[in-house]
């Protein structure tokens, strides 16, 4: 029984960005209008994204994957693609000071809670 519960869990990547001061609105606009449609088209499940409420230079992106192999394969394919490199990459990368990834195993219910409770604070 515990094997079934573990198999139902998904690997969640929480990427926290520290953006260069004064760039968050432009970053958000590029993320929502250009990058996220591409990320989704590559099959990645975007759970939540948006500005960090208590940090004017903070932004987050949460994605879920079946496992680490899927995460690696999807990210390698996406970030290695010409549409990404020739598209919104520079508009985003130029505004990032640093970022950190955290990986957690979560249940589908927990992922649904994250998805429902973290709508972006700013609209593009």
Provide a descriptive summary of the structure in words.
The protein is built from six helices and four strands. The chain is α+β, with helices and mostly antiparallel strands and 124 residues long. A hairpin with a 6-residue loop joins strand 2 and strand 3. The protein has a four-stranded antiparallel β-sheet, with helices on both faces. The model has no long low-confidence stretch (mean pLDDT 91).
Estimate the helix proportion, in percent. 40-55%
Structural class: alpha+beta
Identify the overall geometry.
globular
**Low-confidence runs:** none
Radius of gyration: 15 Å
Strand order of the largest sheet: 2-3-1-4
* Secondary-structure element pattern, one letter each: HEHEEHHHEH
How many individual helices?
6
| Biggest sheet architecture | 4 strands, antiparallel
**Number of distinct beta strands:** 4
Beta-sheet strand percentage?
Answer: 25-35%
Distance between the termini: 44 Å
Q: Kindly state the mean pLDDT as a whole number?
A: 91
Layout of helices and strands, plus pairs?
Layout: H1 2-8, E1 10-19, H2 24-41, E2 45-51, E3 58-65, H3 68-79, H4 82-86, H5 89-93, E4 96-106, H6 108-117
Antiparallel strand pairs: 1-3, 1-4, 2-3
Nutshell version of this structure?
Helix content is 46%, strand content 29%. It has 124 residues and is of the alpha+beta class.
Which key features would you list for this structure?
alpha+beta, four-stranded antiparallel sheet, 124 residues, 6 helices, 46% helix
